[in-house]
Amino acid sequence: MSSPVYDAERFGIRLEASPRHVDGLLVTGPVTRNMADPLRKTWEAVPRPRVVVAVGDCARDCGVFVGAYGVEGAVADVVPVDLEIPGCPPDPATIISALRGLAGT
Hints:
globular, Rossmann fold, 17% strand, single chain
C-alpha cells in the first residue's frame, strides 16, 4: 500500500510506530495465543475514537488456521472490529478503498 504504485499516503494513510499516534489498528492474520494480550494492550493505547480493521480472511475468521493449537481466534474474538476486508490476501487497492470509505474520503 505504501509503494509508489498505490501511494496510500496521498490519502492520509500512514504507518506509525506508536499506537498513541494513530487513529486505528490494521490487523492482518489470525491472533495467536502469544499475541492476544499485546493486541489488547495496543488497542487500549490507541486514543479514542479508534477503529480496528481486520484485513484478510485470516484476520476475519482465521482462514486456513482455524482450529490450530496456537491460534486464539479471529481479531473480532479479541478486540472490537469496525471494518473487515475480505481476501486472501486482499488487493492493496481494495484495502485503500475500504479505508477511504471508513474515513469518508
